[in-house]
Amino acid sequence: MPPVSVAAAAETGAVEARERHRKLARRQEQLRTTLWRLGVLVAFAGAWEGATRGGLINPFWVSGPSLIVADLWKAFTSGSVFLHIGVTLYEAFLGFVTGAVAGILSGFALARWDRLSRVLDPYVTALNSLPRVALAPLFILWFGIGVTSKVILAFSLVVFILLVNTYAGAKNVDQDLIIISRLLGANRRQLTVKVILPSSIPWIFAGLRLGLAYALIGAVVGEVIVAQAGLGFLISHSAGVFNTTGVFSALIILMVIAMLLNELMKATERKLLRWRPQIPGI
Amino acid sequence: MLSTPPAAFSRKIVVESLSHAFDIDGRSVPVLTDVSLEVAQGEFLAIVGPSGCGKSTLLNIVSGLFPPTTGRVTVDGVPVEGINPRIGYMFARDALLPWRTSLANVAFGPELAGEPADRREARARDLLRLTGLAGFEGSYPSQLSQGMRQRVSLARTLARNPDILLMDEPFGALDAQTKLVLEEEFLRIWERDRKTVIFVTHDLFEAIAMADRVAVFSARPGRIKSLVALDLPRPRSVTAGRFGPRFQDLYDRLWDDLRYEVVAAG
Ligand SMILES: Nc1ncnc2c1ncn2[C@@H]1O[C@H](COP(=O)(O)OP(=O)(O)O)[C@@H](O)[C@H]1O
Ligand SMILES: [Mg+2]
After folding, report:
1. Least Cα separation, residue A160 to chain B (angstroms)
2. What is the pLDDT of residues A73-123, one digit of tens each?
3. CB contact, 8 Å: B100 with chain A?
4. ipTM of model over 0.85
5. B214 is in which domain, residue-wise?
6. Residue A8 touches partner B, C-beta closer than 8 Å
7. By C-alpha distance, which of B47, B75, B49 is closest to B62?
8. Is B171 on the interface with A (CB under 8 A)?
9. Engineered SS bond to A229: which of A87, B27, B90, B132, CB 3.0-4.6 Å?
10. CA quadruple B157, B160, B165, B166: dihedral positive or negative?
11. Residue B201 is part of a domain; what is its CATH number?
12. What ligand 1 atom has the least distance to the C-alpha of B60?
């Protein structure tokens, strides 16, 4: 590298100042967005509360923010809710991990082994187009009303998402990268591990994010149908005794869990995909 | 106008009556017809020709990516059968692995060959310094300019220490100034050990400034229309001599041959 000239240094200084200014502007914009978001929440909760207190709607059907907050407070302080959260997370987690591993492996196998994919293609398509939530009653029949049937339902949802995404990722590798790697001496195994796998990571991550959401759906749907514990059980049980507040409390807990899990995934993804070009605004 | 390489050199690459046709929608489309060519050890051969005349196809065949329909290629007297990492190949598109840093991209070839990490990284570092990228070892391709990416790509091509370089319009995608700088630097690097080079370009200036001989290809299906030896002194500068009378002569002669083919190719 040529030595840095005075002019270049001055320019660097100017660039840094501009960069600082942009950062500040961005932070202000973020703050504004956050305030507006809070505003929307307060307005919505306020309208809800007002409508139920003012007698516009009967809280028996729609509950109300203050009732829900009180219910949540009780649930968390008494600790009664933790078992349900734990059960649902446990089922979703097991279904997610097993489904993701199986989906990624089979996606790669299909992508790298042409005969296998030619033979299995119609079956994969058929199973994938089946709404697998409809299998829930069957799974409960086979695997009982406990945790296992929910894990398997979550698994069945996750596995195909990961299979399809991994397959697409492995098939969409830039051909130039394959050719240049072969020219540099890569064998088949090295191509899979060092080129196709890393280049499919963005696709796999997209699948994992979706898969995580679906794992939670699988667990909760299973519980809603029949269970002894879990947030889905809490929902159906509360609804069964006309406790709308209980239903809303469980829904809010679910929503927060799903959002936290999604953020966790995004952070992991950002860390692993540092090499991707940073597009401002995304 | 046909010329053979000086007899004192050994014949490094020999292409013998090579023809190639691609199957396109069940039709056989001829791309190269009866190409015969000898490249001497240490020679710098440039190939020019209208686009679509089969220049890249020829390099692909020489690199061993696929066999020709008929004819054969030998390197050091041994027929080319499959890929040989001793032949370095560089494209116009950088084809860098986007998830690898410059250093890891350059070290990729040695890594595939099972070279230990400290050795291959030391070599990659040296090569990045050689190609003017010291300080950018940790950058990802997305953080580099196109010119810098081609420098990384050149370093990667050199990393397995090939004795033949196949270059397919390596600077063709760069802006005019960056291109001049990279040409200059490539010549400087080439002068160190004078590897055997086949350099495809669509830029006659580039061909004359760098090569020992220039092969002009006809429109598709490509065959060698003329082979012109350039008796310009070395070491050369890419820019100096560009406007001299010798250069102009060679340019006119090559352009005469080439223009006809470019028009014929449409
Ligand atoms: N893999 C391929 N399959 C079918 N046709 C091809 C393939 N590669 C190149 N061609 C065709 O062969 C001709 C020569 O291509 P190429 O060697 O890339 O030309 P050049 O590099 O001289 O521009 C073009 O018409 C191109 O479309
Ligand atoms: Mg080409």
Report:
1. 26
2. 999 999 989 999 999 999 999 999 999 999 999 999 999 888 998 999 899
3. yes
4. yes
5. 1-81+196-266
6. no
7. B75
8. no
9. A87
10. negative
11. 3.40.50.300
12. 17
